[in-house]
Amino acid sequence: MAGKQLSTKTVVAIGIGAAVFVILGRFVSIPTGIPNTQIETSYAFLALMAVLFGPIAGALIGFIGHLIKDATTFGPWWSWIIVSGVVGLLIGFISNRLKVEEGDFGWKKITLFNAVQAGAQALGWFVIAPVLDIVIYAEPANKVFVQGIVAGISNIITVGVLGTIIIAAYAKTRSKSGSLSKETS
């Protein structure tokens, strides 16, 4: 970050975002039938925060939120904690292109958002998480690739549906650029 500091607003967003990630991960997830693999609503929220606050906030919310969630349940599972940070980071990279703060989240931006989030999730859950599970924990490849594929597909769908809906709803609360004009008398 060479000389750049996070704004107070972003630091607060990271703290609140991580806390909400924990709550959603602990209490608003649906078992898939695959061991230690749930359908997680927390990634839709992570996507919103990454889009609003950028890649550093997205990475920290995903990493810290997942770390605390794991620490308060069965203990930290570092491979998946790292991937949560990577997913938040990668989605955050498009925050400047989406500019949902300007009130515009039309079809082109929805398509861009979903292409990026699906790519980020696929890279994270189909590749990075299983490889780290094998390297860090010596887990069997067939087990971790099944878990990664199920987690990745469920996260892509959850963020694609729920994430798109909450980002679109948020964008509608913002004034569109140029929507206010000066009245002349």
UniProtKB/TrEMBL annotation:
It comes from the Bacteria. Pfam families: ECF-ribofla_trS (PF07155). InterPro entries: ECF_substrate-spec-like (IPR009825), UPF0397 (IPR022914). It is found in: Cell membrane. It is a multi-pass membrane protein. One of its GO terms (cellular component) is plasma membrane. Its main location: membrane. Keywords: Cell membrane, Membrane, Transmembrane, Transmembrane helix. The chain crosses the membrane at residues 12-31, 43-65, 77-94, 115-138, 144-171. Belongs to the UPF0397 family. HAMAP family: UPF0397. PANTHER family: UPF0397 PROTEIN BC_2624-RELATED (PTHR37815), UPF0397 PROTEIN SPR0429 (PTHR37815:SF3). This is UPF0397 protein CEY02_18540. It comes from Bacillus pumilus (Bacillus mesentericus).
